[in-house]
Amino acid sequence: METLTKSEIHIRIAERFKKSVSTIRTIEQENPNKYSIMYDAVFDSVEEYDNTQRKTIIIALLTFKGGSGKSTLANLLASNLSNAVVLNLDISQTASECNAATTVDFSEFDSELNAKEVIEDLKQNYDYIIVDTPGEISGELLDLREHIDHFIIPFSPGKRARETTIETVEQYFGEGTNYFEGDYKLMFILNQYLDDVRLKDDAKKLIASLKEVNIDKKIKFQINMSALKQSRAIATMEDNQMDINSLDETNRVAYRVAKKRINSLCNTIKKNFILEEVE
């Protein structure tokens, strides 16, 4: 199968469009009534061609513990990716307004549609879908595994948070579930840590615990680790439901510090998941 870059696809679409427009003008001269029909047909054809070439990357943020910053991280990541959307699957709460990314609630779609069908619908228009999963396991959430390219599992410092993170991995990928036989790429993000000493300690303990997790051998993991330091600016953004860029108007210094940390984390995610070019 031929692989095209995005620019090559756009060139081919433009060439195809140019040729089609020339055909339309000829038909218009011969029979004006056929013009609008041909016009619609050409654009439908071009749109269909573009969609067949699109490879949408789907990233799910997963944790069964509240307060880990899952939704905030989903929104921040989507804001740092081009043509991205956040899909909020947690029907118990609406999507947060404190982000600059396009966000849609699963509950807004037809009640007869399942999550997989909604994702297929969104894939027609977006290059990245960031899935903000609910805080509990379900059959539908398990069925999504084969459609997810990458998983991000945020956790906060402390023993209990590490234990919950291990439980999340065991429940979602472990034995006793109808899992998909795949090669999963996981990134664990230690969120809201206070100092570098605690960061290294929590990361080492989590990695040691992961090695003891009883996971079926058919499932392969590529594990990456990253972190986002606790930020008063981000906390303010969450409390006031502010867009991250709005902080620049209220506290420019805090905004710059927070923005630098966020960009660094997002670049690490892009690098590990081989996404778009790192800034």
UniProtKB/TrEMBL annotation:
InterPro entries linked: DNA_Partitioning_ATPase, P-loop_NTPase
CDD domains tied to this protein: ParAB_family
Superkingdom to which the source organism belongs: Bacteria
Name listed for the protein in its UniProt record: CobQ/CobB/MinD/ParA nucleotide binding domain-containing protein
Species for this entry: SAR324 cluster bacterium
